[in-house]
Amino acid sequence: MNTADLGLPVAVPSTALFTDQYELTMLQAALRSGNADRRSVFEVFTRRLPEGRRYGVVAGTGRVLDAVENFRFDGTILGFLRERGILDEPTLEWLADYRFRGDIWGYPEGEVYFPGSPVMRVEGTFAEAVLLETVILSILNHDSAVAAAASRMSVAAGDRPLMEMGARRTHELAAVAAARSAYVGGFHTTSDLAAGFRYNIPTVGTSAHAFTLLHDTERDAFTAQVDTLGRGTTLLVDTFDVTEAVRLAVEVAGPELGAVRIDSGDLLLVAHRVRQQLDELGAVNTKIVVTSDLDEYAIASLAAAPVDAYGVGTQLVTGSGHPTCSMVYKLVARATSDDPDAPLRPVAKKSLGGKSSVGGRKWAARRPDENGVAEAEVVGTGEVPAELADHQLLVPLVTGGKVVAREPLDAARDRHIAARAGLPLSATQLSRGEPVLPTEYR
Amino acid sequence: MNTADLGLPVAVPSTALFTDQYELTMLQAALRSGNADRRSVFEVFTRRLPEGRRYGVVAGTGRVLDAVENFRFDGTILGFLRERGILDEPTLEWLADYRFRGDIWGYPEGEVYFPGSPVMRVEGTFAEAVLLETVILSILNHDSAVAAAASRMSVAAGDRPLMEMGARRTHELAAVAAARSAYVGGFHTTSDLAAGFRYNIPTVGTSAHAFTLLHDTERDAFTAQVDTLGRGTTLLVDTFDVTEAVRLAVEVAGPELGAVRIDSGDLLLVAHRVRQQLDELGAVNTKIVVTSDLDEYAIASLAAAPVDAYGVGTQLVTGSGHPTCSMVYKLVARATSDDPDAPLRPVAKKSLGGKSSVGGRKWAARRPDENGVAEAEVVGTGEVPAELADHQLLVPLVTGGKVVAREPLDAARDRHIAARAGLPLSATQLSRGEPVLPTEYR
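YS: structure for the whole thing
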């Protein structure tokens, strides 16, 4: 196979090795003890939101579905596990036939979540379900962290477009997933070509300071750029003197100049000055793009400034202070024997130092008040109360091993905007606070 | 090709798309302006360390070499760029033949660095060198952030082994790179099977709470695990009651039990109690492994506790508060014409809001004091002073497009331990402070 897609000369030929070793040793021990086939329910949830955050955003669901489909143990992988002495032969034989044949339910991608929300539920035999823990958590923890930051930034930006530009600040493939998550959270475009290629997200980008510095004069650089990218391009105006560069930009491109980009300095002050200058030069339709170390607070602080678009990098891809979610994957119920019809029994680790879990296979619903605004996240076991039946959150994602919930990325993005709009207004305050909905257990 | 290694049904068939769009539009404009072939020098450096950190750790160098080798534009990629209208035909033709034919120098992997250290220098035509910006920064910024956290943890752990267990808290492929970086920074093993497969890092792992909960009793679970993994295994003892579990563990496995793992609670207190209990039960050689939300400070706080090994997850893979470095890739010099013999001219963006650069192609050396302890990071342009000639830091990595510096990962790990040992003692204080070496410019 071509392994260049990982930037690695050696292949990692499926998603099956994105797995902590203990999943496989548990499998081996369960096969030996005769309990591997006990019907089991694992749930993904978080005990808390990052400090001060009002809501979480489920992202990565679509990537989880891809990962589950591609979770296979081929000869190369089995050879590695054998050679390292990690597993015995019966376990390796079992893995050779592995594919997930169970059911996965989950909050659909883009939905919001709260502490205790069962954002994903994996049901199958213990053996088939335990193996998926690491890869599911990797995807959901990373992607949801970026989407949550993106959502806050998109609230702060209002109607102004947001460009994702963080590829250089995170792992090269995390960057692709981050661009995807940013889009789900409300961003509009990305600088990352791989994300454009893979997820069809619109890509943007024109030039950096290096391009101006390559040329003998700023005029040469601007002329070269306008010649090839057209007058609608975005010229970067802060390599030397901003005022001189703006003057030159309009002289070279004319008032049809698409935009100027400011990447340093006091953006509030500079944006006002540049707007005034552009207007005086007749470039009244030329937009102003700002891109310097922005986060949701910096974006909000520019709300009254004449800024037309924001480019966000570091703070987006690192989750704006919270680069991972604390989602866990816990066994919450399992059958009392390996008989497929044996009853499920709720199980949970005992609390010690706050790591408590609630046992039992759960449903979840978001209860609206009389105005249709969400007032509580309700999580329970057993029958769903009739008044909550129409407000349930979990949908089938995989049924009998078959993915049943593929959707375009825009569907997740639209769902997120709608879900956020259904929360109390205080959800979109940037200031620190408690989760905007209480979680009620039934 | 088999695309399952990305968990993606569609291929990203080389590293060439791990690139911000503006690199390609700059290329197109430079080709049009006739300046694409100007000999150019780009340098990777950081203006500051994360707040309070005493030193940085270069990691990812080996991955950069892989990425540069695999940076090719095949028909699929060119078709994407054409279809999206991102580039014109002459530029697409130019890219079809692209491979990097220039030179790369850098601090060898595992070396420490300081603000202003030119950790990598890429030399070639503007066209060939500008394209590598994003993928080089992605790798170095991510990997070095993890390695810096790992290094601090390894200082705190002293001689006790460190296990990397963070895969579930970061993107599934970032996790593989994180395990690699952790190893460079001083970790010993990883739970991540893909990292074991790809980088030959020793892997570890035995069981989680789910395994105990699957069984009807804790005794059944321990018995099953010991039956298949042997008495040398590590039993997880905090699912229900730790004291009862430790008693049961030694009863089931005998005093030959390899280790017990504690994953919750007050680790200091619990470790002391468990050690006393194990000793009273005659299991004097049974080790104690702790794994609950550790960072370098928590590890240090357990220095006097009877703990034999640490497993670290979240805080490692998220860089212990600093998930990315702030490395940038700047054009520092370029020829005055496209004549290959034209002289190089230093270039730099003017300072505005702290984003200043120092122009010129740089060398770097670490000056020792009379005792051989490093006392300054010296960075300069022009001739290297004779007294620093033997202390230079940059080594050739790629020469004329050919990778010349492949090495086993252990070499980078050993280099890091040695480089850290050559710093003043205060380098390894965990408390916040200034960079332990000043950077002097010549």
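YS: worth flagging: Residues 133-157 of chain A form the longest helix (25 residues).
IM: good catch. Also Chain A touches chain B through 127 residues (CB under 8 Å).
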